[in-house]
Every structure is written in structure tokens, then in C-alpha cells.
Amino acid sequence: MAWNRPILTDSGGFQVFSLKRKSIKEEGAEFTTPKGKKILLSPESSIGIQQNLGSDIMMAFDECIPYPATEKYTKNSIDRTHRWLKRCIDAWTNPKQSLFGIVQGSTYDHYRKECVEEVCQHDLPGYAIGGVSVGEGPEWMEKIVSYTAPLMPKDKPRYVMGVGNPEDLLMIWENGVDMSDCIIPTKFARGGTVFTNRGKIRINHQNYRRDFFPLEPNCSCYTCTNFTRSYVKHLFDSNEILGAILVTTHNIAWYVDLSRRARQAILEDRFLEFKKEFLEEYSGSNKK
Predict the structure, then answer these.
(1) Is the same domain home to 176 and 199?
(2) I need a surface site. Which of 39, 87, 200, 257 has the fewest CB within 10 A?
(3) Which candidate, 42, 28, 114, places its Cα nearest to that of 78?
(4) What pLDDT does residue 1 have?
């Protein structure tokens, strides 16, 4: 990859969750490839793959619980995830690679608490909140994160998996979360959706045919310092892959800048004020 920076790899738990046909059992998760080959992904093989990739942060193999889930299903699932975690730890042989445990529990506070206690007893390098962004909606997501994050060790990285909307990022940061990941900045970019401080815009809209401003005024990213909205729209209209590349470049830079501004606000003890001001500007354009 020639990427001389930290690399985090997922264990495959969410990817298995996203498959329509799979079988979850004690040995691991079994699924069939498009060519008909059966594959069993186990805690041991997941850790082995991640270690071979040389990732700096590896995620434990878990079951991402779907929403909604019954209490019985949730209990059986987290118990199995805890057993899988112990197998992941046993398979973890490279101390230079960090292994993070994952807290599941669906929408049930008592199971989230139980999972935190079970996972964090292993004294791992970091911990993640999983099982959000699976269709539960922003209200449930906030309820889960605001309850679970404070229970997790404050001297270890706290990571919420799969969260990427700006509004949701501000929510998890407010609750003390350090890390997150999501495909939103790049997936949306491929469809022509641009993130700006005044909300999202669709660059392939006809309004931008003669718009010679950058995607985001005052943005210093490569795209905004070299190209206009009208040109990027032309690229999308022409089905040129450069359009998706340029919007992806901007969206990632915009997210990095949002993180930088939020971090500075935290250091200056004005995060809530920053959050309020950002959301007012960001959501204002969407109401027009």
C-alpha cells in the first residue's frame, strides 16, 4: 500500500453481518463465495489474516448484532462474542500489533454494561462500541453511546465503529469517544455529494453548471484550490472518474478539518459552543 501511517483492520464481523446468507456458530461464521465455495471465518483465522496484513490495530472477531434483536438473541450473541474474544487473544502473537475488544449488547443497557465488564477485564490496548449504525436510528445510537462510553476505561482509546455523519461524530466526541470510522465521506463522494460547512450539496445539480467557486470557499484542499464547482460537475456529467476522486479528496480533507476544529475547541473548553455553532450553520442550508 505504501502507506507509512497507522493501519486499522476490521475483523470481518460487520462484513459477515452484511451478508444475506451466512451461518453463525461456535466455530465462527460460515458463508459462501459467489463461486459457491464455503468459507469459515473463525476468531483464529481473522486474527491470523490481520497479523499477516501487518495492521497496527486489529479488531477482535465478534458478531455484529442486527437491529432489532430480542433479549434472548442478544444474550446468546454476547456470550459467544466473549468466548470468541478469548480465542482472539490466544491467537494474538505479535505484541507490536494492538488488539481492540468490541462491546456489543444491542439496545439493552444491562447487556452493554455486562459486555463492557467482560471485555475490559482483559486489559487490551483499546476498546470499541459495536452494533451501532445498523438501522437503529440516531436517537438509539446516542442513547447507546452516551450510556456505554462512560463505562469504558478513560485511559484507553474508545472507538465507535461505523459512525460517520457529521452530526453523529459531534455526538460521540461529546461523549468522550476518541476514534471512529465510516465509508460516508468516500461513498457519498462517488455519487457526487459534497460536504461543506453549510451542509451537503449535490455537485451534479444543474445549479452548478456556471458556478466558478470552489466546492467549499476557504478550503485549502487540492480540489478546492485547483478546480471549480462547474468543472467538477462537468466531470460527473461526463462520467469521468476524476470527478469522484476530486470530491473524495475534498470530503476527506473536510472531515479532517472538522476533527481539527473540534479538537481545538475541546482543548479550549468550548466544545459545546463549537458544536452548537457548527450545527446551526451546517443544518441551515438544508432548510432552504
Answers:
(1) no
(2) 39
(3) 114
(4) 82
Distance, in Å, from the CA atom of 176 to the CA atom of 135, rounded to the nearest integer, reads 23
Q: Is 168 labeled as catalytic in the residue annotation? A: no
* C-alpha cell at position 130: 459495536
- Order of strands across the sheet that contains 158-160: 8-9, 57-59, 98-103, 126-129, 158-160, 179-180
Question: Does any domain span residue 127?
Answer: yes
Note whether 84 and 111 are same-domain residues: yes
Please identify every stretch of the chain with a pLDDT value under 70, giving residue numbers as ranges.
Answer: 285-288
Q: Which domain holds residue 165?
A: 8-182
Q: What's the length of the chain?
A: 288
pLDDT in tens, 203-227: 999 999 999 999 999 999 999 999 9
Domain for residue 1, yes or no?
Answer: no
Residue range 139-152, pLDDT digits in tens:
999 999 999 999 99
Domain boundary among 182, 205, 221: 182
Q: Which of 79, 181, 211, 237 is catalytic?
A: 181
Beta strands 38-41; 193-196: pairing state: unpaired
- DSSP one-letter code for 4: -
Tell me the pTM: 0.93
